[in-house]
């Protein structure tokens, strides 16, 4: 009888008690952010994810403004959105590194309800091979540009008369959750957005402004095609395990997450697993997602260690073969010899089986949570 009672406690009462505790603990509290008939201001809105976001927001009835550097591309984007949705959007040409230009654009556009910061630049190259000007440009656009936009828009957002909640959404990257070979400058700028978002949420929550941090994977855009031309061989090997998404798919996931008030917005299964594994001290509005973070933390750490084992194994073998002057691309991609076959088999089966188990847990524990 005692054993049956203990089993009942472990299988039923303990999870229920944990859910109740997490429901009490999660902060900030859940919130819904409507976008219909509200002003959505999107940076980097002339192409890629930004253009897809503008299309989606306009289709859902938002008043859309887009900002980018190229007046020509902005006009093309406006015409494309008008043709697809019948809605005219406002366009503003400015460099996000120029605070004065950004401030003029934001003031002209009017008070913002949803500030969606999608701009960004990318260099896939080892730090040693990068020009210092490229590193600085990456930081200035991805991090300082974001701060410029927030600084320019925040006063009017705080003083808005609309009682509905507002949103500031930052488009980061899965490279802003985990560092990857060849992404030194880019990852540094995107990791910086996380610290910015976490601190900013504490500063603006009293004004009913809610921050979202979006982590898209590689996305099929002109920028990705250009990036792949310079991408180091090891970067291709390590990053090949994560698939790409279409810009329209990312835009839909991002807007859904913003409207749900999610702090962390993931776009695919790998993104959900990364967000669970790197939750740390980030805010969490959903007690169900908090439950998944707590329950899956241990097994996800094992998966993370397997991934690091795989990545560092690839790096060691790559450099070892280069030094011995026997390097071939086939070795890296397919493996040569008994040791690499064992490594590849262990990496494939161990990692995949653990990922399948995690996927089962996620779908079992949080079937109603949308990311």
From TrEMBL:
The keyword Transmembrane applies. Keywords: Endoplasmic reticulum, Lipid metabolism, Membrane, NADP, Nucleotide-binding, Oxidoreductase, Sphingolipid metabolism, Transmembrane, Transmembrane helix. GO terms for biological process: 3-keto-sphinganine metabolic process; sphingolipid biosynthetic process. It is an enzyme of class 1 (oxidoreductase). Pfam families: adh_short. The keyword Transmembrane helix applies. PROSITE patterns: ADH_SHORT (PS00061). It catalyses: sphinganine + NADP(+) = 3-oxosphinganine + NADPH + H(+). One of its GO terms (cellular component) is endoplasmic reticulum membrane. The chain crosses the membrane at residues 6-26. It is found in: Endoplasmic reticulum. It comes from the Eukaryota. Pathway: Lipid metabolism; sphingolipid metabolism; Sphingolipid metabolism. InterPro entries: KDSR-like, NAD(P)-bd_dom_sf, Sc_DH/Rdtase_CS, SDR_fam. One of its GO terms (molecular function) is 3-dehydrosphinganine reductase activity. Its EC number is 1.1.1.102. Its main location: endoplasmic reticulum. Gene3D superfamilies: NAD(P)-binding Rossmann-like Domain. Coiled coil: none annotated. Belongs to the short-chain dehydrogenases/reductases (SDR) family. This is 3-dehydrosphinganine reductase. It comes from Cajanus cajan.
